[in-house]
Amino acid sequence: MKKIALFLFSIFIFSSCEQKKAAEAPENTAEKKQKINENNFGIVIHGGAGTILKENMSDSLEIAYKEKLEEAIKTGYTILEKGGTSLEAVEKTINVMENSPLFNAGKGAVFTNDGKNELDASIMDGKTLNAGAVAGVTNVKNPINLAREVMANSEHVMFARKGAEQFAKEQGIELVDPSYFYTDNRMKSLKRAQEREKVELDHDDQTAFYDPYIKDEKFGTVGCAALDKNGNLAAGTSTGGMTNKRWGRVGDAPIIGAGTYANNKTCAVSSTGWGEFFIRGVIAYDISAMMEYGNKTLQEAARTVIQDKLPEMGGNGGIIAIDHKGNVAMEFNTAGMYRASMNSDGELYIGIYNN
């Protein structure tokens, strides 16, 4: 009788252990998935889209662009790898490109019609949907830093010109003499644009200003989108605008939803190209909306917006984006786009041309 009781007790204990294991299994699986998600992060950048052709690029200049793109993206990647926020990664990555004369942002900004440099930037937090932007600043070394200050330390979204510069001074943002932004290459570009404009206007071509200068003189806008280990997305964009611009023209870069957008539900996007059309099409937000309301993947949405909807309006350019799962899109309808990406495995991709 004792043996039977001992046998039944053993069966009961074994059964209880198995039930406990079964009950814990889903939790363990969930924990594993959570750990996988925590290690899922990524970053993607652009340095502008346009008529970027291999035959027009010297070997030394191509190497210089690739090295700077690599430096920039590895700056942000290191921040993310160490558990930093996507906002910090976006800001510091863009700083690298703003400090380089290679890109139309910060140090390499193009000139306006009257020979000045007017800088625009924006940044957005996908977790809170908070955003900050600045337009037309002339003495802020790194406009993306000021955009983040607007987001973090004001109740507003966008500041412009003298007001933005005053806010920068109050926040301790690094200011420089406007001569800091002078580069010979950008001044030569301005003179070429003005000479071409003069010739075409002499031939009574009243559409001259609205066509060639926007399309052919606006390369180099920089942007970044990132996903951090906490699952938060962020995006930012910085630019000097369009060569030979006047009347205080502002493009898409500082416009939330056009040049920059981030939402943890969907994706983070930064745009580059003919800004007027990106504003009209609300391009960055349109990609997010197609994902949220149309159940499109990031790649599907980006391809539809950039390859179909944007050209139908008459615009050109591209975007870089990353979704909440770490998938990346680098879509453009021009001859080239300076771009790079890195995933959580440390795999680096750098591209320039349309191939």
> What overall geometry do the principal axes of the alpha carbons give?
globular
Helical/strand content category: alpha+beta
Q: Give the averaged pLDDT, no decimals.
A: 88
What Rg do the Cα atoms give? 25 Å
Low-confidence stretches: 17-36, 203-217
Give, in order, the helices and strands: HEHHEEHEHHHEEEEHHHEEEE
Oligomer: single chain
Helix content: 40-55%
Topology-level CATH name of the largest domain: Glutamine Phosphoribosylpyrophosphate, subunit 1, domain 1
Count of helical regions = 10
Q: What does it look like?
A:
- This protein has ten helices and twelve strands.
- It is 43% helix and 21% strand.
- The longest helix is centred in the first third of the chain and has 37 residues, at 2-38.
- Strands 4-3-2-6-5-1-11-12 form an eight-stranded mixed sheet. The protein has a four-stranded antiparallel sheet with strand order 7-8-9-10, with helices on one face.
- The protein is globular and about 50 Å long.
- It has two domains: 1-38; 42-353, 4-Layer Sandwich (Glutamine Phosphoribosylpyrophosphate, subunit 1, domain 1).
- It is α+β, with helices and mostly antiparallel strands and 355 residues long.
Tags for this model:
single chain, 355 residues, alpha+beta, Glutamine Phosphoribosylpyrophosphate, subunit 1, domain 1, 8-stranded mixed beta sheet, 4-stranded antiparallel beta sheet, 10 helices, 12 strands
Concise overview:
This protein has ten helices and twelve strands. With 355 residues, it is α+β, with helices and mostly antiparallel strands. An eight-stranded mixed β-sheet has the order 4-3-2-6-5-1-11-12. Strands 7-8-9-10 form a four-stranded antiparallel β-sheet, covered by helices on one side.
